Every structure is written in structure tokens, then in C-alpha cells.
Structure of Carbohydrate ABC transporter permease:
Amino acid sequence: MTADSRPLSRRNLVAALVADYLPIMLAILIVVLPLAYLILSSFKSPADVITQKLIVLPDPWHPANYSEAARIVPFPRLFLNSTIVTVVGAGIKVLLAVFTAYALVFVRFPGRKYVFWAVLATLMVPPQVSVVPNFVFVSGMGGQDTYWGIILPGLATGFGTFLLRQSFLTLPAEVIDAAQVDGAGHWRRLWHMVVPMAAPSIATVALVNIVFEWNDYLWPLVIVSDPQMMTLPVGLTLLQNSENSAASYGIVMAGTVMVLLPVLVVFAALQRHIVTGLTQGSVKG
């Protein structure tokens, strides 16, 4: 074995540092730096935020931005609205994705392949395209400034159906067949066999939908005009409109941090399922 072929030789260490660690560090900095700037700026005084000098740490710390943001915008009401929309919307989307994926994999019916292609086609359509038709439809049914009006248009999830279908295809068919031979129907096979074995993928779909529903901005902005029915992202717009001077940037950033904290906690709680869920079934078509 030559000196350069050893795993811990200087040449291999330099190659690993340049090819592996350096891109990872750059990616982390690109993601983390804006978030760090947001959090630090939420504690800065107006003079420190709008100055052209580079001020990294607040001096002095100005936590009054948080109390001022809470005074201007009714965060408890907005938090309740976002929680209802997220829990109900994401819960129904996950259930629909589980049922649809199960039918596409384990139920034999004519045209199953074309249904799956139609689900894939929905992934190619940007959601902004359907805003106007959805607004005409929902407002015509009296859904403006209502919870169901916010939730209804986003209930179908092509991504969740696709991911769960791919995951269900990797489940051991002999286990499902044995349950069928023992007399288990579709309902029992779904909840007692398929769902427990595909739990990481279902958790991933749930997390993606929770983050999407919590951060959704465009559709709630269009369908809601009553401040009492606004969600948190739309409420930030209300804060920005109330404090439209550059000196209020610290208050706006404090409000943004308050909006981000709940979804960061949920992400930290479920993050260990993400890689497992996304890779489960990714190699089977």
C-alpha cells in the first residue's frame, strides 16, 4: 500500500474536504445565513436595521419588537386560524393520499394506469394557474372568509399520492396476500398492514403538507378579507401595511420569527422520518 492510497493520507483528506465537506458547508451557509439574519434583526433597534454599516449582533438587544408586533396584530386569533386550517387541511390531504395510493396499488379496476398518469399530470400544473377558477367557484358557493373556503381547493395532493404509491409498491406482497387469504378485506389490510409498514412515508407526506398549509400565502390572501379569518402569513401582510416605514423592519421580522417557530418545532419532531420516507420506494416504478 502506497502512502497516497491510505484512507487518511493528506491527498485523500484534501479530496474529501474539497469534494464533500466544502459543498455541504456552502449549502448550509446559503440556507442558514438568511434565517440567522432574520432572527438577529428581530432583536435590533430601528437604527441598527436600516443602517448601511454591517452590524451582525444587536447592540443593544431590542426584544420590544416582539411585544410591539403582538400589540399591532392579533396573533392569538391568527394562530388559531392557521392551526385549524393546517390540522384539518393537512389531515384530510394525508387521508385522501393514503386512500388513493392504496387503490392505485392494491385495487384492480379498469384504467388504473391512466388515473395514475392524471395524478402525475397535476404535479406539472403550478398552483397559481388555478387561483382564478378556484376563486370564482368558492366565492360563488359563499366560501369567502370561511375555513372551508380556505381548505377546500388544496385538498387534492398529487405529490402525496405519488410518494405513497411508490412506497406501497415496495411493501412485501406475500404479507398482503396472506392477509387476503385469511379473509382480511381492503379496509383491514389498509389500516392493519399497509399503514403501519409505510408509516415513515406517511409521516413525510404529513410533514410536507403541514409545512405547505402553514406557510400558504397566496390562496388565503385571495379568499380572505376579514382580519379575524386571516392566517399567520396573511397577518404578516397586515403588520407590514400598518408599519410601512423602514424603521418597522425589526417589528416585521419579529412577527416573521413568531410565524416560523411552530413549523420549525414540527419539522424538528418529524425530521428523522424525512429521509426514510422520501427514499422508501424511490427505485420502484
The CA atoms of residues 43 and 64 lie 8 Å apart. The radius of gyration is 24 Å. DSSP finds 15 helices and no strands in the chain.
